[in-house]
Amino acid sequence: MPKFLIKASYTQAGAKGLLHEGGSSRKAAVEKMVGALGGKLEAFYFAFGETDVYGICELPDSVTAAAASLAINSSGMVSETIVPLLTPEEIDKACKKSVAYRAPGQ
């Protein structure tokens, strides 16, 4: 199952919600959402700085990841990005694919 990196930052209202609910509650909510989508939450960490939350999850496919991203971002409480993660073996396969690309100006 494909893996994805979740990077999320709370809005002011989202931070107030976090203060009210606590970190464990937010992790449980994300775990429940990912599970309901047929996936698994592997890691969930809070941070401070530009990004407030980092998570790694497995989801069935990119369409499911996009649906989760749309739902999270449309809440207005969180600004979130989901990044697909590739294994070294997947990169090996990509390296072997022939791509006809011409750089601009060449």
Task: Give an overview in words.
- This protein has 106 residues and is α+β, with helices and mostly antiparallel strands.
- It has one domain (3-95): 2-Layer Sandwich (Alpha-Beta Plaits).
- It has helices at residues 12-21, 23-36, 62-74, 88-95, and strands spanning 3-10, 40-46, 53-58, 78-85.
- The chain has a 4-stranded antiparallel beta sheet with strand order 2-3-1-4.
User: Secondary-structure element order, as H and E?
Assistant: EHHEEHEH
CATH architecture: 2-Layer Sandwich
Q: Radius of gyration, Cα only, in angstroms?
A: 17 Å
What is the approximate shape?
A: elongated
Ends: how far apart? 39 Å
Q: How many DSSP H or I helices?
A: 4
CATH class: Alpha Beta
Strand content: 25-35%
Most strands sheet: 4 strands, antiparallel
Number of strands: 4
Cross-sheet strand order for the largest sheet:
2-3-1-4
Uncertain residue ranges: none
Please sum up the structure shown.
The protein has 106 residues and is of the alpha+beta class.
Break the fold down into its secondary structure elements and pairings:
Blueprint: E1 3-10, H1 12-21, H2 23-36, E2 40-46, E3 53-58, H3 62-74, E4 78-85, H4 88-95
Defining traits:
elongated; 4 strands; alpha+beta; Alpha-Beta Plaits; 106 residues
